[in-house]
From TrEMBL:
GO terms for biological process: tRNA modification. Belongs to the tRNA(Ile)-lysidine synthase family. InterPro entries: Rossmann-like_a/b/a_fold, TilS/TtcA_N, tRNA_Ile_lys_synt, tRNA_Ile_lys_synt_N. ATP binds at S30, G31, G32, Q33, D34, S35. It comes from Riquetophycus sp. The N-terminal region contains the highly conserved SGGXDS motif, predicted to be a P-loop motif involved in ATP binding. This is tRNA(Ile)-lysidine synthase. The lineage of its organism: Eukaryota, Rhodophyta, Florideophyceae, Rhodymeniophycidae, Peyssonneliales. Its EC number is 6.3.4.19. It comes from the Eukaryota. Coiled coil: none annotated. Keywords: ATP-binding, Ligase, Nucleotide-binding, Plastid, tRNA processing.
Length: 323
């Protein structure tokens, strides 16, 4: 634990696991330099501070690449060499988008965590990933939630948390760290395919912005995201309060007359929370806007409203019911 990244990782980890019983964790890896760096850091953390910590690794193989089998062997040998356990899930080679693939990976990791009763999931997301996610979400027309979606920690279900202790690590520092300790990085050829949005952002847009607009743009975006996170947390807390105040004590319903008195931002978030909490559905922008407009108008004219296939809502006596 003699490098500044070791110290930084220790500080981040201690902050993230505060008030959490750290006895068993699962690490989601890919084999790239970020993942290999995380493996080295977490193993050193275990050896120096928590020798009884049980660490398991998980890798999701989409089998998109011709050398995917070799990559699996590479990871297996590396993890076996440090005497830890690794779980590898190989998925059918089907053509799906990067976004859907990411969602599928998270679903598998969460299901694995639930089955093996792991309360802590750790990923190797870095500052670079956070900035790239910010740009991708902005181009999709997201709000503050989407722009700040890659945070230090996230509650997945019950008491299970997703932690990102390397979220403030710079790519150049990780590269130096891997070279210093001669870590076996697997070079992923898909990282150099410019038709992938994330790669084009990394190798074309960001260098262009650094050269012609703002040399330390990563630092400025990171500061912006940090400020947005604070604002977002404040709004979330008020959303939860409003939702608890306005929901029906027995039925799946929410009192729109209470919600309607608040700012539009809180109205939208509270309705989102209502639908997601009860039927696990995220309302898109158009559906949410339609619902807000219906609430503003004469309720008698809009008694039954179709929101999704097989899901309707009824508005009656200031209450919105789902059925």
């Amino acid at each position: 634990m003699n490098t500044y990244l070791h110290k930084k990782f220790y500080i981040n980890t201690k902050e993230l696991v505060k008030n959490i019983q750290l006895d068993r964790i699962i690490i989601a890896i890919s084999g790239g330099q970020d993942s290999v760096c995380l493996i080295k850091l977490i193993q050193d953390f275990k050896n120096h501070y928590h020798p009884l910590l049980k660490i398991e690794y998980i890798y999701i193989d989409h089998q998109w690449k011709k050398d995917s089998k070799n990559q699996v062997k590479h990871l297996s040998n590396f993890i076996r060499n440090i005497k830890e356990k690794i779980y590898i899930y190989q998925l059918p080679n089907i053509a799906i988008s990067e976004t859907k693939a990411r969602k599928l990976r998270y679903q598998l990791i969460i299901q694995h965590s639930m089955y093996y009763k792991n309360c802590i999931i750790i990923t190797a997301h870095t500052e670079t990933d956070q900035i790239e996610t910010f740009w991708i979400q902005i181009m999709r027309g997201t709000g503050i939630d989407g722009a700040t979606s890659l945070t230090k920690q996230r509650l997945l279900y019950n008491h299970t948390k997703l932690l990102r202790p390397m979220i403030n690590f710079k790519r150049i520092d990780i590269h130096w760290f891997c070279r210093k300790f001669c870590l076996p990085i697997w070079s992923d050829i898909t990282n150099y395919i410019y038709s992938i949005d994330r790669n084009r952002l990394r190798y074309e847009l960001m260098p262009y912005l650094k050269k012609y607009f703002q040399y330390n743009i990563e630092k400025q975006i990171y500061k912006f995201l940090d400020n947005c996170n604070l604002d977002n947390e404040y709004i979330k807390q008020n959303t939860v309060k409003l939702y608890l105040m306005s929901r029906h004590p027995i039925n799946i319903a929410i009192n729109y007359s209470i919600v309607q008195k608040q700012h539009l931002a809180l109205q939208k978030r509270t309705l989102q929370a209502f639908f997601y909490h009860n039927i696990n559905i995220v309302l898109n922008y158009d559906t949410l806007s339609k619902l807000i407009e219906v609430i503003k108008k004469d309720i008698i004219k809009y008694n039954n409203i179709a929101i999704f296939k097989n899901i309707n809502i009824t508005i009656h006596n200031h209450w919105i019911y789902i059925y």
